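Encode chain A's predicted structure.
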Amino acid sequence: MGSIQQYVSQLRIGDAQTYKNLALVPLFGARNGLEYLVLDEAVNQRLQVLETDQVPLLKLKNESGKRVLIMQGEYVAGGKQNRMFTHNMLLAPGFEGNVPVNCVQHGRWHYQGEKSFTSSGQRGHTSVRRATREGQGAVWRDVEEFTSVRRVSSPSGNLDDTYQQKQQEMTDYLTKYSCPTEAVGIVAVSLQQNKKAYGVDIFDQPGTLAKNFKKLVDSYVIEAIIGGKEIKPKQEEVQLFLNDIASTKQEEKVGVSLGKEALLRGNLSEGVALLFENTPVYINAYNLTEGAQQAEALPAVRTGLSRRVLSR
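Encoded structure for chain A:
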């Protein structure tokens, strides 16, 4: 049994927190003792994020003296334009080098105030993270469509304007969710204009989820605010989604700094995972587009459950 399958298979599902068309389901499991900072901590502890004058690259200098975890989809503000990290990364202490990014502010290429970057405090939504696999053009198209659907005005094509202009609508959701003690992950299940969407974030320890909880929830709420019917996911369908992730095909490659990055592809899901010393540090996955639309036609994953599929 692979490390991802083993880790996901032992997760326990908690009680869903539901508001309107978005449910968050906590996951409980084993914890790892690995020490690291998350991005929002690290930028205040001598992690430097610097402009390279090249759209697809930023320079990182980790002078914090600690490892730093960066999630795919987190984005930083500043420089000549806001940028989003395209890979999960665990930076070694003393790491210095260029890392791949995508621009999420199409209409700006000049400095505004400080030349360095700070954390935006946000993570990009599911479709923009998926678009990173297709390249910069796909990311720009996604940001344009995403802001348009939510009726956001952004002359510079800035993804962050969506979060800024939709704060009131988001607050209605955000006050309904809290991070359960000892949870290591969450499954988000939403109905977005009657299309069901699944997403999951799993860490190696509860503290990392707690530190990133608002950022993760924001990224799911900004998707859900377009509206949809009230949702009450069944534990069986959440388990099936997790089982599919556990049984995904994995394509591993060397990480940007420490560890390995694994691309995941299952019958119903796809995503990315970061492994360090053969242990998952972070797993992020979501349902396939075609899976969301044709879930009833797909075979159930055979991992000990009765034959079920993701319900619509």
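The mean pLDDT is 90.
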